[in-house]
Amino acid sequence: MEKTWRWFGKKDPxxxxxxxxxxxxxxxxxxxxxPNGEIWTLEAINDLKGYIENAGLxxxxxESLPVSESIKYAGVDRGKLIENYKISLxxxxxxxxxxxxxxxMPVIDWIRTDLxxxxxxxxxxxxxxxxxxxxxxxxxxxxxxxxxxxxxxEMKLVNELxxxxxxxxxxxxxxxxxxxxxxxxxxxxxxxVQKPVExxxxxxxxxxxxxxxQLRENLKFFLxxxxxxAEEHGINLCVHPDDPPSAVLGLPRIVTNAEDIDWxxxxxxxxxxxxxxxxxxxxxxxxxxxxxxxxxxxxxxxFVHLRSTDVSEAGNFIEASHLEGRGHLIELVRIFExxxxxxxxxxxxxxxxxxxxxxxxxxxxxxxxRMYALAQLSGIIATVRNEMMK
Length: 390
Ligand code: DNO
What we know:
44% of the residues are buried. The radius of gyration is 20 Å and the shape is globular. The strands form two sheets. It has an eight-stranded parallel beta barrel with strand order 1-2-3-4-7-8-9-12, surrounded by four helices. It has a four-stranded antiparallel β-sheet with strand order 5-6-11-10. The protein contains 14 helices and twelve strands. By secondary structure, it is of the alpha/beta class. Helix 2 packs parallel to helix 4 (78-95), helix 5 crosses helix 6 (152-164) and helix 12 (290-297) packs parallel to helix 13. Strand 2 (26-29), helix 2 and strand 3 (59-63) form a beta-alpha-beta unit. The chain has two domains: 2-110 and 207-389, Divalent-metal-dependent TIM barrel enzymes (TIM Barrel), CATH 3.20.20; 125-205, no CATH class. D-mannose is lined by residues 63-64, 101-103, 109-110, 185, 240, 364.
């Protein structure tokens, strides 16, 4: 696998020179300043590509070429937005960038409720607490009928939490779920969001009547339109799994398990229609066995995110060490090195450790924590390659 790193562009405090020193081989990035839905011009792509190459690296993967909300709920302007998407793909193809990651999660991308979960050793990791999330749903968004999505026992805990939660904690929950985790990856919440809860509810309303079947049809419509362009340029499009891999807030999610992935790969059966194998997202659902999924889908995987989780029976999950947990990263490296050895992979997320705590990195994207994980994974990759030579 190629060792890549998610870099947030020229404004990223982590410079390309730093990345060269720690053994990064390829860059994962996007034109973060272009608003969602607008065309990525060849000029802008080439400018960033040249900048990366001047530093002695190369632009390996686009993460993400974002899919506009209106394409996901089939709004009136989806035709125009899909045309723009195709032009952007065309331009990426001309520039020679051949792996493009995207996701199809309505309204909200990845979800966490705590960005500073302290571990015994003094480092911090990311955490999802089902009851706090249900609280956000039932008491902060006040979504009609939300209680029905939780068990009686869960609602009991949610109602108890309501008696003790402070307004600072409520505010922190809103900032974490809507602003901090979404702001840097999700156009819906970019910039200075004034009224996050109101905005969130407006977006939820756009999906009234969009169930799983309808969302699948909308994805199929999108893929049928863009995959021919991808084929023409040899671009591998790869959908990112839903994180966590289950329906949330009354919204359908359609990249959650083996059956979903199969459905998508068959919806437009082309090698250019593939998967981003995000071990962290997939492993956070107890229904998923990541090593089975990897063996099954390795040939249609175009990009790998290596991260692990531990999940409780109650549905809470914590981002685990890259050497432990349900992600089984050692086994995944074995599978991918054997089945698809040139795949780009990036270390996904890292702990906050040492001097990281003094910096303001995007949540999950620390420098020292990710560097530490990259070192661990480099060791695994080297070991696996050595095993394979024997
Ligand atoms: C968060 C990421 C996601 C992911 C996008 C891909 O850390 O895993 O934001 O990049 O969903 O489109």
